[in-house]
Amino acid sequence: xxxxxxxxxxxxxxxxxxxxxxxxxxxxxxxxxxxxxxxxxxxxxxxxxxxxxxxxxxxxxxxxxxxxxxxxxxxxxxxxxxxxxxxxxxxxxxxxxxxxxxxxxxxxxxxxxxxxxxxxxxxxxxxxxxxxxxxxxxxxxxxxxxxxxxxxxxxxxxxxxxxxxxxxxxxxxxxxxxxxxxxxxxxxxxxxxxxxxxxxxxxxxxxxxxxxxxxxxxxxxxxxxxxxxxxxxxxxxxxxxxxxxxxxxxxxxxxxxxxxxxxxxxxxxxxx
Length: 272
Prior knowledge:
The chain has 272 residues and is mostly helical.
């Protein structure tokens, strides 16, 4: 009896060790999308009434956990029964990321900031919350698929790894979002307490952090989306992978934006 118990405990310890190793590897692989997810979600909360910021972040966090609960079984089932379909799901997600990156670049170049800011301010709290949850759903598919592609073992081990990753990613992203959206409030609080220099530094820092995260998020979209295309089509024209993936991502993103814009114009012309 004691021998069986020791064997069971040893198996459990071995499984947990495998899960820890694979989780670490998968987290490295999904780093780009995690950065993108963080940047996108900070942007969703930007412009909200300060008292609503943390409740919104918490609701998005809960929605993100539900997303993972839906996505993980879906990814595992496709892995075992239709890996070809899964590869095309991943490719479609890569196209989406490239398109979103291209769309952001086009908006920055051709559209005024005032329009974007007005749209953000006019969006309701409910719209912002659901918009963030829907965006998280798409990005979560990419995170789970990429994570699953970097792990091995039986289905139980893979399910455990993906569950751990799903929870850690959500906690990391929305924990950081909660901290970032409160930096200016912390600054104002410090000013009230007499620490004016540090407080005003934090208040002025927040807009710069938002701009930086916007740039990082857009670049991450191109890198991750381009990487998916490079892997799927076996591109290998540059020795530095990150530059190759960025170039592919930009080309795919701008091409998809151009094609969709052309289709939209043709539809308007036909109606006229």
